[in-house]
Inverse folding.
């Protein structure tokens, strides 16, 4: 992560961060329960991709960097004790764009999703994304050999045009410890 893209929050931004803490905490719990130690398999009529998320990925979805690192950010979020003074926010303002839609993150396992292909924007390149039918949010994914990792949460109100993608017809979860597969949608 390029620290030059981040800055310390000013007083107004610290106030904004405080207002998003409960949303970050709730989504850390959701992410831990439904994504960590699991592979999520998204299937369309013509394609199947596997998403394997790690604890370290969660911080990037929030659009921040934490002085103590991504794993500590995630653990502090689970314990509901993030230290705001240790958060750096993006200089381009996208931290708050991401946090505005973080409360919709649970839609990433919902019934109305689409899988897009590779896109290349000025500030972001990704191999696939999982997006909501209504242009609310997308989860940008990067290919990491045999599976995808989440790299960014995108607020689609600020990205035009965004690829339409193909309807996801099945979502499964494979537990990485037990191998058990659960159909989610």
């Amino acid at each position: 992560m390029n620290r030059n893209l981040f800055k310390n929050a000013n007083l107004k931004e610290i106030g904004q961060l405080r207002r998003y803490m409960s949303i970050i905490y709730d989504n850390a719990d959701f992410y831990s329960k439904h994504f960590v130690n699991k592979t999520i398999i998204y299937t369309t009529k013509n394609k199947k991709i596997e998403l394997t998320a790690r604890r370290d990925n969660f911080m990037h979805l929030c659009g921040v960097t934490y002085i103590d690192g991504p794993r500590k950010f995630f653990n502090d979020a689970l314990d509901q004790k993030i230290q705001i003074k240790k958060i750096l926010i993006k200089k381009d303002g996208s931290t708050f764009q991401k946090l505005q839609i973080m409360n919709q993150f649970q839609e990433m396992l919902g019934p109305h999703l689409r899988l897009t292909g590779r896109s290349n924007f000025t500030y972001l390149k990704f191999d696939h994304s999982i997006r909501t039918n209504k242009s609310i949010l997308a989860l940008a994914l990067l290919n990491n050999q045999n599976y995808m990792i989440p790299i960014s949460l995108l607020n689609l109100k600020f990205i035009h045009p965004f690829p339409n993608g193909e309807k996801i017809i099945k979502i499964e979860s494979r537990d990485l410890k037990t191998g058990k597969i659960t159909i989610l949608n």
In short: The first helix runs from residue 11 to 34. The first strand starts at residue 6 and ends at 8. Residues 26 and 78 are 8 Å apart (CA to CA).
